[in-house]
Amino acid sequence: MSVRFRLWVLGVGALGLAALLTAAFLALPEFGTWHPYGERATGAALARHTANAVASVNFDQRAFDTLGEESILLTAVLGTVVLLRQTRDEDRVPPRSARVDPWVERYALVLLPIALVVGLYVVSSGQLSPGGGFQGGVVVATSVHLLYIGADYRALERIRPITPYAIGDAVGEAAYLLVGVAGLIGGGSFLANTLPYGTFNTLASGGIVPLLNFAVGIEVACAVVVLVSRFLDQAVEITDAPRGGRAKRGAES
Questions:
Q1: Can you give the pLDDT at residue 81?
Q2: Beta strand 236-239 with 90-96: parallel, antiparallel or unpaired?
Q3: In what order do the strands lie in the sheet with 90-96?
């Protein structure tokens, strides 16, 4: 396939996409009008005692779609681990510490516990306020890696052994599936919201919403930790091995 033909294919595809986006834009309701989907989504959220309508959509009204999104992250992490694994002809050189500005170190160490608490709060209160498992999980994973800035790479490795986080990634995915199976058994459909809805605007409200939200929080936090760890291990100096020797990988923190 020639370069010119590829450009023609790209151009035709871009024009088609532009036409579809233009048609969709022209069909949007006028500014300030209330779309029927919003009325139904909000009504269903209130009926099931979920204060955050977005969480109700994600973990109740379209919980099956969210399972797919969670599975995409799990698959991405699995693919990254396989592609970036250490091969048999490589030796891993212990990381060397690099100087970091003292003010940056202090900032990271002070911010670490704050970010961790904020992340856990965002996960636990996702059915009540903006946020949830996806957002909170990323914040939790980020807080762990602030130790990389505040101390060094070796300190980070001590608090985040990869195996437990990889297990946590799988546990979060499995927990989501198990809640769905429980709905299939108790309510007749996969991920049916069959638990008591609880008192509106409390942590126990929303039926299965807080359970699915927590499962996603575990999966996302652990997945991001594993994902970043693989790339940090690749932020290394690759040296060619002598003939008949082994390649070496080393990291600087």
A1: 87
A2: unpaired
A3: 90-96, 247-252, 236-239
